[in-house]
Amino acid sequence: MTTLLTAEPAALGRTYANFGRPAWRRLLFTREMAIIALLSVVVITASVMVPKFATPVTMGYLLFDITPILFIALAMAPVMITGDIDLSVGSMVGLSGVTLGLCSQAGLSIPVAALAALAVGALGGLVNGLLVTRIGLPALAVTIGTLALYRGIAVGLLGTTAITQFDKSWTTLVKSRIGTTGIPMVMIVFVVLLVAFSIVLHYTPFGRGVFAIGLSKDAAVFSGVKADRTRLVLFVVSGLMAALAGIYYVLYYTSARGDNATGMELQVIAAVVLGGVSVFGGRGALHGVVAGVLLIGVLSKALQLVNITSDVVSIITGVLLVGSVIAGSVMNWVQSRRVKPALGPAPSTTA
Amino acid sequence: MTTVATPTFASEVASRFGSLARSRETGIFLAFALVVIATTVKNPAFLFSGDGWRDLLLTPAIVAVVAIGQAMVIITRSVDLSVGSIVGLSAYLVGTLFVAMPGFPVAVMFLVGIAFGALLGLVNGALVAFGKVPAMVITLGTLYAFRGINVAWTGSNRINASDMPASFLALGTKQFLTIPVLTLIALAILVAVAWYMANTRGGREFYAIGSDPAAAELYGLAKTRRVLVAFVASGAASGLGGVLFAARYGTINSQVGDGLELQAIGAAVIGGVAIVGGSGTVVGAVLGAYLLLTINRALPVLGIPDFWQRAVVGALIIGAIILDRVLANRQTKRLRAERDAA
After folding, report:
1. Radius of gyration of chain A measured on its C-alpha atoms
2. ipTM over 0.85
3. Are B305 and A156 in contact (CB under 8 A)?
4. Could you tell me if B94 and B113 are in contact, meaning their C-beta atoms sit under 8 angstroms apart?
5. pLDDT digits (tens, 9 = 90+) for A215-251
6. Which residues on B lie below 8 Å from A147 (Cβ)?
7. Dihedral sign, CA of A325, A331, A337, A339?
8. For residue B313, what is the nearest residue in chain A, using CA coordinates?
9. Residue of A103, A120, A102, A51 whose CA lies nearest to A307
10. Which of A34-48, A174-188, A234-248, A304-318 bottoms out in mean pLDDT, i.e. has the lowest?
11. Which of A76, A142, A204, B271 has its C-alpha lying 20 to 30 A from B180's C-alpha?
12. What residue ranges define each of the domains in chain A, with the CATH number in brackets?
């Protein structure tokens, strides 16, 4: 049933690797490389134009700010590559943070409280995944519902109060940097996770299955991919990563509130789409996703330093998001115009 | 079968009545009535005081108007996440115009708000229809962009009731035969759109495109134009929602309509507009809006802190989509059984 929804756009938006071109061109002229190039240009421009931008302190704060988005984007990318989406992550950041806060307030140590928060994240992801795979509901509808539900539970549990008392040793650990480099300690966790996610997504049968599901779920099932199990696992992982981001968020800002990270799902999805993950599923790579998150982070940090307020950043995020998906369509259209004379009419989309 | 072959008056009435009793709209209305009755038993003022009766009809009116547009978009198998931001921009535009020109005619102001919303809807529609990309991503982007423009434009500024003409603000509280004027406006739009969607060729085309876009296109329906029209309608409805907000609350800051998209989508989905498109009615969406917001207002009366409102919204949305799926499965099974029997 749900394949009906994606079948037609998937065929429209799909781009095939063109093996008619030499390897270096195939590796260099990709969507991911375009984003990385754009990121480099922005970083260089900002370093030259914006005073105090290219300092370890600024870079450190930039990384601290985008860490939750980086965590969630790692899990959101594979979810979107299968053609699903998880809009509930921002709410899960809030709910897991509230869980951490309540457990810590009840006298549990931070590691135990964090485990409870992760369990809540996994459970929330499991609910999403079961509704999508077992009952066969569209991921968009389910996660719009759980976006409201999880946020509602978080706000319901804490009301307008905030929990701000946490074990000092943990909050200082989260805020600590590696030596004098200015790079946050938490980046070590991120790099380990990035390597793990990259290996699983890009170098294992499970990961190939993720892409196969996004290209055509039926074809993937017929070629032996356990599609529903894979999607369920990805939703659970998405919940877990959102919970991890929630734990970080609470410890870094030393504040557990019901409305923590409201709207973060939009930033994550914007970054993931900007990083080259197709909204139709089936394509994307983690280096592009990381570059997408960094690009939005660098832009907002640089603008913040020249006293341009956050609303301009949200305009830019919105325009970048719209622009990046439209750019994909335009490029497909241009390509189809260029290929047409050589290959005849483009293959029917209903094939 | 026999009723189709020889329709007698009695059987016609019976089948009409049967389908009315089974319809989603009736179910939602009964749920709405149940909530109202349960709350009124607990606190009679909820229904039987002047204010209670007015709020019951008035509070959901703005979401109801926005949900009518949203329902049209969802029926064509898209979704419009930017409605809350459009409501905010339109409300602020109305306020700003009143500050600049205090004598601005109120009726024209409604048209300005609607036209402005329609223009923003056109931006969404053009990007979705011509870019051939999912509406969700586009409207997610414009949600951001419109809200950002609103915040940049408004800043920490706020427009207060004293900046707007009394005749405009009076609309927010005025009643006609005990029914608030804003509710009547919503009702008039509902009747017009419901008639259009049910009885005209154009209206049915929305359903055709939503239930099977490829088939609709093969059949020769102007898919691009219909999608465009749906988004313009949703934008116009949100623009009107902004005007109604300004009239009702009198205070406009940069966060007007924040999160309204969830309520509008929730109202439509709860009211039986299937998120996969092609089914549901705008009447259902409006009933969904009334059910949703009335539950929210009933919670504190029933002794549940209103912090739980959003959780209820979420639970209702999920319950509604599961119900939709169960009903659709049953329908498929029945059709299959009928086909096998034939």
Report:
1. 21
2. no
3. yes
4. yes
5. 988 999 999 899 999 999 999 999 999 999 999 999 9
6. 262, 314
7. negative
8. A148
9. A51
10. A304-318
11. B271
12. 2-338 (1.10.3470)
